[in-house]
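Record type: monomer structure entry
Structure origin: computed from sequence
Chain ID: A
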Amino acid sequence: MSMMTPEAFRKDKYLRASGYNFYVWAVVNLLVTWPLFAALAGRPWPDWMAGLFPIVLIIGGIFVCVLNDNRVQKMCGDPSPQPIVEAGAIWGPIFLIGLAFSVTFAVRGPAAYIQPTWLLLVGAAYWIWGSFAVPEFRRLGQALIAAGFVAGLSINPSEVGPRLASSSALLIWVVFMSVLWIPFGAYINRKYVHSLRAAEKVSVAARGA
């Protein structure tokens, strides 16, 4: 894999807004645990509301990501017609597999394994994507897979109900799928987006002098 450059990053339609999108999904991944923690506290939401809530969050997250794409296009211009990696070919199957497992665990139980499963799947996607594009993504993927493994081992099925999440797995989810993503997104933006913008400003200032 060749070294990723800020120029190549800013011209890739899938990568260029990814730093900003980490902020978006960090918020979504945190809020999605709200009804799960409420159920553990003995205050379960109605089934229809608990099922609709994550769908609304995902739709809202996608909408904000589209806004991020438009924002980055104004900063960086049009993307290259050919991305470094066709990320949709990675994320499409990942989401379908995750959805299938989520529905199965939610209906048949134990639902506590939904979060570890998503940690493993999202980690695998970033590991694959990073192996061909951004090396930091590969390291993030490895961390998520390790977290998913630990989250799965932390669950004792005999101590949680078939429809309830695991408090330990939820805490690991919050740390690795939300809290971690804020500084990681900031790092990606600083290294691949804002660094080039700063260099361009210095170049323009130098030519003006």
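Annotation 1: The radius of gyration is 19 Å.
Annotation 2: The longest helix spans residues 47-76.
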